[in-house]
Every structure is written in C-alpha cells, then in structure tokens.
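I'll show a record.
***
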Amino acid sequence: MFRRKVQPLDSLLNQFLRQEGLEAPLLQKRLIAAWDTVVGEAVVRYTQEKFIKNQTLFVKIINPALRANLCMMQSELVRKLNAAVGSMVISEVKIY
C-alpha cells in the first residue's frame, strides 16, 4: 500500500492561486465588488469609478457633500472593506 497526501480542495486552490500570483488580483476584485454592500445603495448611486493601485482604493463620487462625508470615514471604510474580503488588501481609501 502507498500513502496519499489528502488535502482539502480549498487549500489546494489557495496554494495554486498563490503560486501563480493570482491571489492578490482576486482579492482586489472581491474588495471592489464589496464596495456596494459595505456602503449601501445610497452611496452606490453616486459612485462612478473604483480601482486599486498600490494598496489604495480610489473611488470617484459625483456628489460633493457625500464625497466630504466619505472622506471623514476613510479609516472605517478601510476596516470594513478589508473585513468583507477577509484579508488586508488595502491600506487607504482615496475619495475624489
């Protein structure tokens, strides 16, 4: 008889993604998708662009009053978005 190294499928997938360099882009995509659920529909209506560059999430908000309000909540947004993904993906949010 021979031994088989049995591993759960999710750990194998995570290992594969890490080896191929696909883990970070996947987490970034999940974080951008989580924006809608974290901030709610009222903010999503005024959100136009979202992208991540150098661990910073850039979000374009077209309502000036909402933009100012979200700027004051940046650290809370970082915490909630990272928690939604389950990993430290971003360290800063820039609202413009």
Remarks:
- The mean pLDDT is 92.
- Strands lie at 47-53, 56-61, 92-95.
